[in-house]
Amino acid sequence: MIKTKNLTFQYNSNGELFHFPDIDLPDEESLLILGKSGIGKTTLLHLIAGLLQPKSGSVTIDNVSLQTLKNKKLDQFIGKHIGLVFQKNYANRSLNVIENLQARLYFSKQKQNKSHIENLLKTLNIIECKTKKINELSEGQLQRLGIALSVVHQPKVILADEPTASLDDDNCKIVLQLLLQQSKLNNANLIVITHDQRVKPMFKNILEL
Amino acid sequence: MNIWKISIKNLFHKPLYTVLSILSLTISIALLISIKQLDTSVKQQFENNLGNIDMVVGAKGSPLQLVLASVLHIDNPTGNIVYKDAKKLARNPLIKTAVPISYGDNYKGYRIVGTTDAFVKLYDVKITKGKDFNKPMEAVLGYDVAQKTRLKLGDTFLSSHGFNDDMGHEHPETFIVVGIFEQTHKVIDRLITTPLESIWDVHNHHSEEDGHAEEGHHHDDEEHHHDEEHHHEEEDNKQITSMLVKFRNPIGLITIPRQVNEKTAMQAAIPKYEMERLFNFTGIGVKAISWIAYIILFISSIIIFINLYKMVKERAFDLALLRTYGASNFQLIKIVAIEGFITSIIAIVFGVSLSQLGLLYIFNVLGKQYQQSIPSTLEFYNVFQIILWVLLVVVVAILFAVIPILKMNVSKILTDEK
């Protein structure tokens, strides 16, 4: 469950002031946020993810207001309850696929259950890459690893920032299906922000900025 | 997976950088330890060799030469003094022990020192095999001499004239080995001791055989003048090379050397003072190499800093990503710090081992040249001090390298990288 209220944000004291509409997303629902570049989509996403502090207003995830959490507690909360997916997928290049997922679980203080990780890799169809280094993966495999990293710790919220921008139509569909499937499996909210009109038909809840 | 594993994986990910960091740090640590240890060992060896000798009295000339020759037995003597004069000085109540020594010959390069039984007291040395000498032509061998020449008790040998093996001809008189000293790592290890009379006898007979016409011919070394007139006179008119003196109390150190230098034909030198002078000369070299080692340490700290800093900068996104995983700033700093410390600990292990191997070789060579085995003294305090320096330098490098982590704006990095 995600709620935002009267969110405003300003990058510096005399910069542009962003106003964001309130969001009220019940459990297990997904939301598509559409908007042109520069309108503050990523800013909104980072506010929800707790990576940025709003000038005013609040973000509440599972009845916990992010604004009441400080430093380490906030780090822990984000790590535990939020999964982020990026347009370009990065993972630690000195670790292999499975080690990256273990590191993800380590930092969010969860059990590094190997069979859980392998099952996830199976559902995402990249189990054959489990001991591969990051630079040995194809674009598509990297995308799937990105999704795996965002859900391996069974978060309450999956936030995806332009996950389909660089993908062709087929892959665009596959990635979104995987994201929706994973959010269902984890009983998590999924919020996707994009300017990509192709994904519109796949969402019930759409917010246009 | 944990922080340690991530740090180690990071190190393996860029093996070239890691090896470069370790290598440069290893070299500086090895240099620092070697130079320090070499310096301490050599100084200690010299000081050891001074034994209980407070003052040495010999012929006028360079005081350093007198000390090198009569105390350390590595240079030629300044000349001879009259035994009678030396004995007169020895009667001074401030003097506790006065040991005459007389030189002239060697056996296979090992110096034969004519002296009295008081000589061993200067070095607190015991005889492990046989007995002390008590008749002319009896000889007690230092430990290294016995080892290298393989002479045993009861063996006889002929001495050669001069201080080096190849300097002169052999004397016809045979010495007999009656004792062998224990190993002391002091100068006595490479000396052959015999009563003063042995030296006088050898040279007197020698002069007789050569005859008057040849006088001086084989004696162009000034220290070997043995006038024909002398050899029938009493012992007191004989000559000795020098006299080693131990004072009863420190006042002797203040008054007697000046007295000797001003009022007699002899020269007094204070071994400790001369050694300090010598170390002041050699100290410049030691200092220069130390500076080079510190400069290398500085450079390797910069290399470590650059490697860590590059890691932090190049992988800013990776690190930001870890922050979204729930990692705290402190955990990220720990990753970088552990990388730095693993590098330095490996370098310390390699550096210390390399220095010990290098020193083993150096001491071996030195020992051969010096004809005496030098104990390599590893001063833990020194090593500890150097390691502390290295760690300090590494800590500073780490601190500078993690500054970007402290200033990291996760949101901005994730946005920019898109």
What's this model, at a glance?
Chain A is α/β, with parallel strands linked by helices.
N→C terminal distance of chain B: 27 Å
Shape of chain A: globular
Described by strand count, sense and barrel closure, the largest sheet of chain B is: 6 strands, mixed, barrel
Q: Multimeric state of these chains? A: heterodimer
Overall number of strands of chain B: 12
Percent range of helical residues of chain A: 25-40%
Q: What would the principal axes of the Cα set say about the shape of chain B? A: elongated
Strand content of chain B: 15-25%
Helix count of chain B? 14
Helix content of chain B: 55-70%
H-E string of chain B:
HHEHEHEEHEEHEEEHEEHEHHHHHH
Order of helices and strands of chain A: EEEEHEEHEHHHEHEE
Largest interface, with counts of residues having CB < 8 Å to the other chain, equals: A-B, 35 and 27 residues
Structural class of chain A: alpha/beta
The gyration radius over C-alpha positions of chain A equals: 17 Å
Determine Rg of chain B (CA atoms, Å). Answer: 31 Å
User: How confident overall, as mean pLDDT of chain B?
Assistant: 82
CATH class group of chain A: Alpha Beta
CATH homolog superfamily of chain A: P-loop containing nucleotide triphosphate hydrolases
Fill in the keyword field for this structure.
heterodimer; A: 209 residues; alpha/beta; Rossmann fold; 5-stranded antiparallel β-sheet; 6 helices; B: 418 residues; 6-stranded mixed barrel; 14 helices; 12 strands; elongated
